[in-house]
Design goal:
AhpD-like, 68% helix, mainly alpha
């Protein structure tokens, strides 16, 4: 199995997007770029995509690992829960307390902006639209620009595309 995703000619646009949003653009702080890329790669559940992201953006600090772990873990519960609640009229639960989540202040997140960026990346991949919207609004409240939020969304889309390219390569050319 390859360590890095190989982008065939048919996926050159996706390779260029990944390179651009991770290396060339600067709407996001460098820590947020790294956070979004790692969170998206982890949500993809593909070790080769994670290795690709690690190669491009580098390793995470222990604090960033902890915060991304919180974001990915919490979104793994909230994304499907709140997504499903959009389609049924249930008059119980429907809040973070019913999921036994500790209050946000109790989990001691140092970089709240990067945490919310990680949450939108994971929510995009998981289809957690209610959480995506909530965390996007939190980012706007914290002063993040539309251009920065858009870059985070494109990073997530590019990482997700890398996963798709990797899968296609495995099925079409190694199977």
């Amino acid at each position: 199995m390859s360590t890095f995703v190989q982008f065939p000619d048919e996926s050159e646009d996706q390779r260029l997007l990944l390179k651009s949003v991770l290396i060339s653009e600067n709407h996001l702080a460098s820590s947020a770029i790294k956070t979004v890329a790692w969170a998206a790669a982890l949500a993809c559940r593909d070790k080769d995509v994670v290795k690709q992201v690690q190669f491009i953006v580098g390793d995470l600090s222990p604090e960033a690992k902890r915060e991304i772990q919180y974001a990915v873990s919490r979104m793994s519960v909230t994304n499907p829960y709140f997504f499903s609640r959009q389609f049924v009229d249930v008059h119980a639960g429907g809040n973070l307390e019913s999921l036994k989540f500790r209050p946000f202040a109790d989990i001691a997140i140092d970089n709240e902006v990067d945490y919310h960026y990680a949450c939108i990346a994971v929510s995009m991949i998981n289809g957690g639209y209610a959480c995506f919207k909530s965390h996007t609004m939190s980012l706007k409240t914290l002063g993040q620009s539309d251009a920065a939020i858009d870059q985070a969304m494109r990073i997530t889309a590019a990482v997700l595309a890398a996963r798709q390219v990797h899968f296609n390569n495995q099925v079409l050319f190694q199977g």
